[in-house]
Amino acid sequence: MTQNQKQNQNHADRLTARERIQQAHERQARADRLRRRIVIGVSATALLALAGGTALAINAASSDGAAATDTVDVTAASAPLVVPANTSGPDGTLVVYGKADAPHTLQVFEDFRCPVCRTFESADGKAVQQLADDGTYKIEYHLAAFLDTNLGGKGSHTALAAAGAALNEGVDKFKQFHDVLYANQPDEREDAFGDVNHLLTLADKVPGLKTDAFTKAVTEGTYAPWAAKVATAFDSSGVTGTPTVKLDGKPLTLFAGGGRTMSPEQFTAQIQQATAAH
What we know:
By secondary structure, this protein is an alpha+beta fold. The chain has a single domain (39-276), classed as Glutaredoxin. The protein contains eleven helices and seven strands. The chain has helices at 3-38, 42-50, 74-78, 115-133, 147-151, 155-169, 171-183, 196-203, 212-220, 224-235, 264-276; strands at 58-59, 95-97, 105-111, 138-144, 241-242, 244-247, 250-251. Strands 2-4-3-6-7 form a five-stranded mixed beta sheet, sandwiched between helices. Strands 1-5 form a two-stranded antiparallel ribbon. α6 (155-169) packs antiparallel against α9 (212-220) and α6 (155-169) crosses α10 (224-235).
């Protein structure tokens, strides 16, 4: 190899090295952008709250714009559809908690892996349930699984399928298991909910839930196709993030000034003011 050829080769190697470094930086930048979209900071949440909008803390589109349903497990797509007992709505994709004749409807849009959903449930979950138990409204749960796309893994779908098994045992069992899942939600970067054995362990926290039928359904993924259908219904709802909560179709404010979650008293007052106007 001539001296000029060696120099050209060295120059090419340096270019290749720089290109690799640049590509690595670009990959990191994409990861950082995705991370910022997935977990919105307090300042962003505060801006949403000040604007009077619901805190859309999780973007329902993946980083490359793919639909959440792209990650539906192959077995879920090919297995027969089994709809749990006690479902509601079109194709059994809704879960309704509360009195059927309640004068108002609270729509709750959540993903079991959504960390801000856990923040909302931790702060206001008891108030949300109490108002349903009092007959102020019934709750419609619209459940998503797009975080499996955004974060990787299958925890959202697997937890949703297990929630279907709980629903098959009864709406009250579903509600209790729903609350247990949020109280024991792993870091959103971990996929602990993708492990059915972990979900079965959590089911021990709901008295009377872990029947042979429930255990079999969770272990075998009986309701995985149903979970995929529920997730698809969420994708078609027009809601772009979770948590989103609407009363009779009108979005509610979930965060107060400074990005703080509304207190139970504030949430209840907001509901009372809205229902009094009807």
